[in-house]
Structures are given as C-alpha cells and as structure tokens.
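Entry type: protein chain
Record version: 2
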Amino acid sequence: MVNGTVSIFKFVGTISLGLLTGVSASLSTIALPALLTLPTASDARTTLTYTSSKTRLITSYLRHITTFSLFSAYLLSPRRWRHPYLLYTSILTFISGYGVDNYMTFVTGSNIQRANLDLEAQGDDVNGEQVRTVVQIVRTTEKYRAIIVGLGFAMNVVGLWGDGALFVR
C-alpha cells in the first residue's frame, strides 16, 4: 500500500512540477513581452496587474502541491528506496518561490507586489517607463523561476527513470 501511495505522490509531484515549469517559462517568454506591445500604459498596467495576481495564485498552488507531494514521497519511501532526488526537487520547488522573490527584492531593491500596487494607485496617469520597468523585473523573476523549476523537473524525470530501472530487476 505504501509503495502505491509513494507512486501517486511521485506522479502528482512530477505533473505539478511540469505545469509550474510551463507556466513560468511561457509567462517570461510570451505573455510578459506581449504586454509591452499594448497601445497604452494604462492597458499594460491593468493587464500586468491581472496577470501577476492570477499567476501568483496558480504558481503558489502548484509549488505547494509539488513540494508536499515530492517530500511526502521521500518520507514514505522505504529506507533503501529513499532517493535524494525527491528531496532535492522539493527543495528546488520551494526555493523557486520564496528564494527567487527574496533574491529579486535584494537585487532590484523593490518588491514586485509593492511595485504593482504603486502602479495601480497611479490611476490613468500611469507612466509607460514605470510599467516597462516593472514588466522587466517580473519577466526576469519568472526567467529565474523557470530555470530553477526546469532544473528540478529535469532532475525529477531522470530520477523517476532511474526508479523505473531499479524496479525492473
């Protein structure tokens, strides 16, 4: 029974990690650059605020599901089948959220949520350069996030393949 539960946790964690990688990668390469092509700064600001809030919610759920699933699979695995890739990928997933946000706050000196609120408070008289700056910060943040969770996803797929190779014997 425990082995089946561990397999389910691994499956759920892998799928969630893949979705998280896809969301971050597509946001940084497709959605955010498209915001800079909108005709007015007000439209770009409104779309950025909406996209940021929805993305933050979705990625938060995916990060928590992934971290919980993979860490639980690590803890529930029998001692001789307890592979560290489960622990490493759950740590990378956790770091992709809070670690990247704190790093970007340290590097840029501004918090993304606070910058979005500042833009929203300006109303219709929003400055296009301020919107561009915030979009670039969010885009860079999502690039780092995509790289970290992409590494975790690759590590997880290789680890699962190794698990399958071990069970064939």
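Comment: The radius of gyration is 19 Å.
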